[in-house]
Amino acid sequence: MKNTTKTLTYSGLMAALTFISTSILSFPSPFTGGYIHIGDALVLSSGVVLGKKNGALAAGIGSALADIYLGYASWALPTFIIKALMAYVIGYMFEDLGNFKKTGFITAFYSFLWVGFGFLVRGLIASNRIVDATQDLITEEVIANETELLSTVLSTQNIILAIALLLPLALFIVFGMSRFKPSIAMHFNKISAFIVAGSVMVILYYGTYGVMYGNWIIPVFSIPANMVQFAFGLTLATLMLPITLRFQLPKEEA
After folding, report:
1. CATH topology for 2-244?
2. Which pLDDT value is given to residue 134?
3. Helices 182-213 & 76-94, crossing angle to 10 degrees?
4. Do the beta carbons of residue 49 and residue 14 sit within 8 Å?
5. Of 236, 210, 232, 211, nearest to 221 (Cα)?
6. Is 197 in contact with 233 (CB distance < 8 Å)?
7. What pLDDT was estimated at residue 220?
8. CA distance 95 to 85
9. Mean local confidence (pLDDT), 231-253
């Protein structure tokens, strides 16, 4: 009973902190009609403290409630799923940080996912099958014309592709070094877990927008903002690790 009460208390607290950090400290994102925030730090921390299942529920509920509170109710369900999946990834990887084989496999999967995503976006932009729904951006004077939009989209996509190729390479180099130094390995496993979770968020939000609105150009603008948002969240979550690890529930409770 005591363990159940502790788990419920921690879960409620993390859900509340996720809601507050997402809804209060948020700023509008003009290209997607959404917002950017620092709530990802608490989403990641939910996975660290509560484990994969309870962490997923706390992160998903807190983030979905923030969407509803800020007037983005149509995004509540996708947000719940995406944020819950982020926390689940963290909980799954943090429950066995000493398993370098598992971390290596997940890092490899993440690398192929990012590379595939980069080429997929390039292919969508290069094809003539993209739905043209950019008039609203022109009307609102966010961009001057379609040529400017396409130019910005292409440059943004090139940045995404560069990251898709360089970041996995950097991770594999560090992973190779970590096999010879356990202290580096543990730090690598933690950071790798955060990066994988962030990749899931960026890719799934892009895909969700495309499916919901039938436009694959506009959500490209959200990718850099999502990556900056997540980078800040990753940094904050990393700085919070000495605290969150102290409150981490035992595996049998999580």
Report:
1. Arp2/3 complex 21 kDa subunit ARPC3 (1.10.1760)
2. 58
3. 160
4. yes
5. 210
6. no
7. 77
8. 15
9. 89
